[in-house]
Amino acid sequence: MTAPVLQNFEKRAPQTFEKHIPLIGDIHQKSAIAYQMTRGMTSAVNAVQMAVAESYIAGVEVPDSALRALFNTCMPVFFKYFPSLLAPYEWVLKETDHLAEGSRDLMKIQYDLPQEMLNPMLGDGDVIYPKYSMGLWQKGAANLEEAQKHMIDDMIEKMDIQDGDNILDFGCGWGCVPNYILSKFPNVRFTGLNLSHWQCEYMRGKMQDPKSFLSSDRFTLHEGDLNDAKFEDKFDKILSVGVFCHVGNLTNSFRKLASFLTENGTVFIHIITVRTPNNISSPFTHKYIFPNGRYWNYDAVPSHNKDLKTVNRWYMNGINYHKTFAAWLENFDANQDLVKDLNYGTDYDRFRRIWRFYLIWLGTNFAVCDGECNGNGQYLMVRT
Ligand SMILES: C[S@@+](CC[C@H](N)C(=O)[O-])C[C@H]1O[C@@H](n2cnc3c(N)ncnc32)[C@H](O)[C@@H]1O
C-alpha cells in the first residue's frame, strides 16, 4: 500500500510540474514565468491568425476547401493540446467591469447590419423567424427550419415550460423563440429584451401582423441594453440563447437575473462553450464580427454559483453548429444578388470576404475533435 505522504506527492506532482510549463493546461495555474511565456506565444498566434484572415479579406484567392483544410489541421492541435493559445487577450481570462462591454459597437458591427442581408441568411419563415443560434440536427432535421424547431422543442422540454408561465427572453433576437413558444402554449406570456434597434423594428412589424403570435397581447418588447435592464414583473422562467458570449461578467449577470425571478423560478442559459480549461476568443471575430465576444469554458457557469446555482447542464455536440453555419453560408452565397448593393459602411467585396471568412472559420471550428471540444452548453439554474 502506498504511504499517505507518497500518495499526496503523486497527486500534486503533475500539477506542480505542469505549473512551470508554458502553453499546456490551465493558464490560471501557471507560475509567473510560464504565464508570461504563454502570453508572448499567444501574441504570435494572434498575429498569424490575423495575417491569414486579412490576406483573405484583402482579396488573396483561396478556395474554401483550402481554408477548411488549414483550420482542420491546426485547430484540433490548439483545442486538445494548447488551449491557452486560443485566449487572445487578458480580458478573456477574467470578468469585465460591465455585464457586457462595448454593446453599441457590437450592434453597429453585427446585429444592426442591413436586415435584408441577415434575415434570409438566418432563415425567415412563417413561424420560425430569423434565429441566430444553433439548430439541433442530431434528431434528423432535414433543413435549417426543422433544426431550429427541434432546438426550441428540446429547450421547452428541458425548461419544463408550463402553460401560463411568465417568461423573459434575455436577448431575444428577432423574437423567434417567443413566437414559436407562444404558438404552442395559449396562456404563456413573454417579455423580450434586445438592444438591436432593427431587430426590434422587425418584431414591432410582427406585433402588427395578425398572423404572428407576437401580435397577441401576451408579448411585450423592451428595446434596451441588458446592462440597464429592469422589469416590473417577476418571471417564472428566464431564457437566454446565444447572448452570454457577449457577457463578460457572470457573477453580476447572475445576480441581476436572480433578482428578476419568482421564488421558484428557473433560468435557462444556452451558450457557445468550449471544453478547454479556460475561456477562449478570436482576434479575427473580436475585430470584425463580435467585439468583446468570448466563449466560456464548460465549467464557467456552474462555478459562478453565488446567486444562481446550476442544477442540470447539457453539452451539445458542435456538429450541430457546424451544420447550422453551413446552412447560413449557403443562404448567404445564394442571396448575393439581393444583398450586394446594401450599405455596409464598407466596400461590398471586402464585406463579403469578411463574412465568408467568419462563416467558414466558425463553421469549421465547431466540427474539430468531432464536435466534442467546441459546442454549445445549456444550463438550468435556480436561486441559491
Ligand atoms: C446571437 S443573437 C441570439 C438571438 C436570439 N436569442 C436567438 O437565439 O436567435 C444575440 C442577441 O443578443 C442581443 N444582445 C447582444 N448584446 C446585448 C445587450 N448588451 N443588450 C441587449 N441585447 C443584446 C443581440 O441584439 C441579439 O439579438
Give the SSE map.
Blueprint: H1 4-18, H2 32-58, H3 64-81, H4 103-111, H5 115-122, H6 144-159, E1 166-170, H7 176-184, E2 189-194, H8 197-207, E3 219-223, E4 235-241, H9 250-260, E5 261-274, H10 283-288, E6 296-297, H11 300-303, E7 308-316, H12 319-334, H13 336-339, H14 348-365, E8 374-383
Parallel strand pairs: 1-2, 1-4, 2-3, 4-5, 5-6
Antiparallel strand pairs: 5-8, 7-8
S-adenosylmethionine binds next to helix 4 and strand 2.
In helices, the fraction of residues equals: 40-55%
Low-confidence stretches: 1-11
Name of the CATH first level of the largest domain: Alpha Beta
User: β content, as a range?
Assistant: 15-25%
Class per helix and strand makeup:
alpha/beta
Q: Average pLDDT value?
A: 95
Span from first to last CA?
Answer: 42 Å
Assign an overall shape.
Answer: globular
CATH level-3 fold name of the largest domain: Rossmann fold
The run of helices and strands is HHHHHHEHEHEEHEHEHEHHHE
C-alpha Rg (nearest Å): 22 Å
User: What's the main sheet like?
Assistant: 8 strands, mixed
Q: Using the 3D structure, state the CATH architecture of the largest domain.
A: 3-Layer(aba) Sandwich
- Please report the total strand number as a whole number: 8
